[in-house]
Amino acid sequence: QGKFTLLRDTRTDGSFLVHHFLSFYLRAGCKVCFVALLQSFSHYNIVAQKLGVSLTAARERGQLVFLEGLKSCLDLLFGEEKEEEQQPSPLQFISESTSNLKALFDFVRTSLTPTSGDSWKGPVLLVDDLSVLLSLGAGPVAVLDFIHYCRVAVCSQLKGNIVVLAHSNEDSEDVENELVVNSLCHHSDLILWVEGLATGFCKDVHGEIKIIKRASLELTAEQDQVQIYQYKIQDKNVTFFARGLSAAVL
């Protein structure tokens, strides 16, 4: 509890980790707030069904709070004016001059604050993917402030967990995105860094994952623990193996 996990992908798609954590926390009985900025609800639901979890059922029983970013953006930009009585959109910053993510933070805090009838084990914030906020016009400082406030509210006060996916490309000229990703690396308890193979495509090895357990956050003299595996994504699961030990080699 109280951990911040960063999912980082470079030259490949690390979304399979998002699907894993989503189904994992729902099966564990946790209350999940899923800020989905990259895909539609039906996309995540189809993948979750393959993993044995129904997002529709989880949402109906109040275990899953799902923010469909694509739909919210369209409603804000092209939708009709809504009644003033309704709550402001969590992505309100798109239609405002200042990139203030306070409405998004309020949505997260309200969604995960337990009520008297709740029996869920612990709150979890899942974000896919943080880089989209920069593309929508939020500044890097606003994004880092949002994550900081979420860590205080979810990890420290509510004793929950945060899992965030962010794309990165070290050769990219997107300075703002690299600033955000590198800053998050310094604050993470655990980093799962997925990279495409430097040698190119292989049908038996889809990429490499670096698991970095941060010891430096606890102000000890220990070094960060780093483990490196290669993986292959299958229809309903992912297989991991040490480098050079894939089925193609053996």
Jot down its keywords.
single chain; alpha/beta; Rossmann fold; 34% helix
Descriptive notes:
This protein is an alpha/beta fold and 250 residues long. 34% of the residues lie in helices and 23% in strands. The protein has eight helices and nine strands. It has helices spanning 15-27, 41-50, 55-60, 69-78, 102-112, 131-135, 140-157, 175-187; strands at 4-10, 31-36, 64-68, 123-128, 161-167, 190-195, 207-213, 225-233, 238-241. It has a nine-stranded mixed beta sheet, sandwiched between helices. Strand 8 and strand 9 (238-241) form a beta hairpin. The longest helix has 18 residues, at 140-157. It starts with a strand and ends in a 9-residue tail after the last strand.
What's a quick, concise take on this entry?
With 250 residues, the chain is of the alpha/beta class. The protein is built from 8 helices and 9 strands.
Shape: globular
Number of strands: 9
Low-confidence blocks of residues: none
Q: Would you tell me the structural class of the helices and strands?
A: alpha/beta
Q: How much of the sequence is in beta strands?
A: 15-25%
The CATH architecture comes to: 3-Layer(aba) Sandwich
Q: Work out the radius of gyration.
A: 19 Å
- CATH level-four homologous superfamily name: P-loop containing nucleotide triphosphate hydrolases
Head-to-tail CA distance between termini = 39 Å
- The CATH class: Alpha Beta
- Percent helix: 25-40%
Give the ordered list of helices and strands. EHEHHEHHEHHEHEEEE
